[in-house]
Design brief:
Blueprint: E1 2-8, E2 21-27, E3 35-44, H1 49-52, E4 73-80, E5 90-93, E6 100-104, E7 109-110, H2 127-139, E8 147-150, H3 156-167, E9 172-177, H4 180-188, E10 193-196, H5 202-209, E11 214-219, H6 223-232, E12 233-241, H7 262-265, E13 269-272, H8 282-294, E14 302-306, H9 311-320, E15 326-330
Helix pairs in contact: 2-3, 2-8, 5-6
């Protein structure tokens, strides 16, 4: 039996190119005790993967050259040498970027597909949902009646962060997005205001959308957005530093926010976080998010690209902002 995998063929400099990836066929090894063979159905592509393509020390090891990339995926167990997993189980795991995955059963989680579609466990019930939840509940703890600004609000994490903020009692939620159609999409999610950051300086657009200032900033973008948020934040404002997609493909060091000194006088808290460090919040998150989904109070959207061979194109599209909500690849 052969499996198809997407390998990292070369490390990108600046924006990744299709030539940085390679589709290969490899033999599927025999299962060892405790292992399962999963036929992947849908896989996730995520912005953090760009950093793993660089050979630098970070919070997660870099992807290796001439080896498969990995990331979240859902699929069906088609062979098992584990008493804990049966053929037919639908599982989520981290061996994406391939159509067949051999891995320890302990590194999979069986999904309740009656409670929610399998793809929801890559979105609102998966990493994006937990990331949004952790950022608002733990990192920049939002209080009822506050004003929240979310950048990248049309993406997988930002779209959920804004909705969670409203559901948890924010008085006003503002989002930024990269096109007029995305702005309309964000407004349709229930954000009180949204703006296209290409129209004019972010600081000006944010001042228009939140004339009385903001209390919390959920940062997916960095750069100009972070600088604008620092200016708009009230005293004791909080920032959840989730991502900096504006800088991921930079070939030169990017400047820090020019107004960072304001953080001293305003007594701001700017706190970065990695969602995998907050697994202790997962049970509360799952309970709350599952209830919102059952009640139809959370909207989540998916942009689906068909074919494993097109996973690199899906990833490049994600970096360029072609997606609404979660970018997925139907293997």
């Amino acid at each position: 039996m052969k499996a198809r995998e997407i390998h990292l063929a070369s490390r990108p400099s600046g924006w990744p190119e299709p030539d940085n990836f390679r589709l290969v066929e490899v033999p599927v090894p025999a299962l060892e005790p405790g292992q399962v063979l999963v036929r992947n159905e849908v896989m996730s592509v995520d912005p953090y993967m760009r950093g793993r393509m660089n050979d630098v020390k970070s919070y997660v090891p870099p992807f290796q050259l001439d080896a498969p990339l990995d990331g979240a995926a859902v699929g069906e167990v088609i062979a098992s040498e584990s008493p804990d997993r049966a053929v037919g189980d639908v599982v989520v795991h981290n061996s994406g970027w391939r159509d067949l995955a051999v891995l320890p059963a302990a590194r999979t989680r069986v999904l309740d597909t009656k409670a929610a579609p399998a793809t929801a466990y890559l979105g609102p019930l998966g990493g994006p949902g937990l990331t949004a939840y952790v950022g608002l509940v733990e990192i920049a703890p939002m209080k009822e009646g506050e004003t929240v600004f979310v950048s990248g609000a049309a993406g997988a994490v930002g779209s959920l962060a804004g909705q969670i903020a409203k559901l948890r009692g924010a008085a006003r939620v503002v989002g930024s997005a990269g096109s007029p159609s995305k702005v309309e999409y964000v407004r349709g999610l229930g954000f009180d205001a949204a703006f296209d950051y290409h129209d004019s300086p972010v600081r000006e657009r944010l001042r228009e959308a939140a004339p009385d200032g903001i209390d919390v900033y959920f940062d997916n973008v960095g750069g100009e957005h972070l600088e604008a948020a620092i200016s708009a934040l009230h005293t004791h404002g909080r920032v959840a530093l989730c991502g900096a997609i504006a800088q991921y493909n930079a070939t030169e060091p990017t400047p820090a926010p020019r107004n960072l000194a304001l953080a001293i006088g305003k007594q701001l808290t700017l706190r970065g976080f990695i969602v995998t460090s907050y697994g202790h919040l997962a049970p509360a998150f799952y309970a709350e998010m599952a209830q919102w989904l059952r009640e139809g109070r959370i909207r989540y959207d998916e942009t689906i690209v068909d074919g494993l061979e097109n996973a690199p194109d899906a990833f490049l599209g994600l970096l360029r902002g072609t997606n609404l909500g979660k970018m997925l690849v139907r293997v």
